[in-house]
Amino acid sequence: MAKKLLIISAITYLGLVLFIPAVNVFYQAFKGGVGEFFSYLMTDDFISAVGLTLLIALIVVPINAIFGLCAAWVLARNRFPGRALVMSILDVPFSVSPVVAGLMMILLYGQNGWFGGILSAINFKIIFAFPGMVLATAFVTMPFVAREVIPVLEEIGSSQEEAASTLGASQWQTFWRVTLPNIRWGLLYGLILTNARAMGEFGAISVVSGNIIRKTQTLPLFVEQAYKQYETETAFAAAVLLACLGFVTLVLKEIVERKTAIGEQ
Question: Is the full-model pTM beyond 0.85?
Fold first, then answer.
């Protein structure tokens, strides 16, 4: 009896918090018909927001992939004073609110910030411009690749890499032919999470972007703007696109987890 009660409670909670709101979003988006739904997605403002969101993701994901691999290699293969501190710093984006992260960037790179004078002198704008949005997104997505790759590197150890080095392989050959095949699923998992967070980030972007239509407005900001302007159908249509992105992320996540489990058997 207690087991059934717990199951019913869990399902009820998920229904109220997740399923019913998600179904309502899709209903509101499609209640006018499929044709009307696609008409909401053909506006210039929407296309601009999607393009900017994709561009930021295309820049941030490779940057954090390289950084994550380097950080994971250093932390998994070396023991040095302050390693625990570095690990903790790596987790700062998980513990700090994205809004606070955006505010920190304004204090650093804003017109009256620490580096504001230097940036003004060279006529380079970061806050309320594209570079600030890239920095904010890079910050909030920084730990994902490293956090997924570190446990994999620690689990496989360094014996295969040492053997390859003994046989005359260069460091690049060792990484490309030994290390990368062993960490590929963890790396892919981290990239999936990084991309999903980059395309769905709202808090930090809303602070540093200024939310300028067709200039610094990403898709999540477009949803908020459309809803505030009482363009609810447009807002729900864009929200459906973001929800589909989340669904695709979950599917890819499940595939990677199964591939990882098969590889470990």
Answer: yes
